[in-house]
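This section describes the prediction task in plain terms. A model, or a person checking by hand, is given the sequence of a single protein chain and must write out its three-dimensional structure as a string of tokens. No templates, partner chains or ligands are provided. The sample shown here is typical of the held-out split.
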Amino acid sequence: MANIHWKRIVVKVGSALIAPHKQGCSSHYLLGIAQFIANCRAQGVQVVLVSSGSVAAGWHRLGDVKQPSVSQKKAMAAAGQADMMATWDKLFDFPSAQLLVTHGDLRDRERYISIKNTLFSLLDHGLLPIVNENDAVTTDTLRVGDNDNLSAMVAAAADADALIICSDVNGLYTKNPQLHDDAKLIKQVNEINEAIYAMAGGATSEVGTGGMRTKIEAAEKAIAHGIETVIINGFDPDAFNRLLKGQNPGTLFTPFDQPMQEHVHWMTHTSQAQGEVIVEDNFDAPLDDQETQLTSDDVVAVKGNFSVGDTILVRKGDGTKLAKAQANYSSCLLSFIAKQPDRAFAHDVEQQTGPILSDENIAILE
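The expected answer:
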């Protein structure tokens, strides 16, 4: 890594740093992070902060609860979010802004663009966006689930140059360093594959929802967008000093030389398929070629319920995933015409309605 060369970065901070003992927010570990953010801004680097911790910060507000219910966790998140924002505000001498999102917001193209525009507007006016998942209202079907992956989605939306993920260890090790003395820190990863995932264990923090695996998942999303990603030890103030000097204090994941196009990246890594279209196992036509567009003749089955504009998965009967794309048909209509014995009728419907898949929003998965 050269001297700090980023123009815009996303910093992800987890619950263990915000509220390490579930007794409210603590600034003990946040001072070094806040100073790093201030130094970056002083050098002209725009910063977006993705901050977990609302549930952990509000845990004590509901008394001595050992195993809270879903509704109690939502209440903790609602109480803790206010405390968390107040804690961050105390550490900065510049204005910040709260942005609460769900996966439902991110996977909807119109709302995703709205989030992008809000981030850009905040940054252009010198505010620090502080992003968190809206745990107080989100449901299982609408949640990202961990802020590591959320930070990668936010980094892509913000067109960031770098994503810095704070962990409770120095980076990715060959083994869990808390269990194995011979574990070695991997300084740089040029390709994320199964061998890299095999090195990631479970969560090592009692208050966080993500472990090293979710950080690798986040890195995979980010580097595909051309975003340099670094996992560092957020409990070590020197790690941030080294970053400012252009040094690598943890594990650096190098970005793709040719990043995915923005809409392809969103379709691949952020949008969530609402249903599936199954084609024959011998189907081999390029789905992103206007000359070989998917037709009802190719459709074997339709699974799930989706509407026009929803993201769907196209796969073969053997399970091979071919593409994610925006549907131009509802599941009801597509299933109906695909089952018609009179193919002339089906072709007439397609001629009037248009192609099954939107050729503007399609991501090839093979």
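For orientation: The domain at 8-265 is CATH 3.40.1160.10 (Carbamate kinase).
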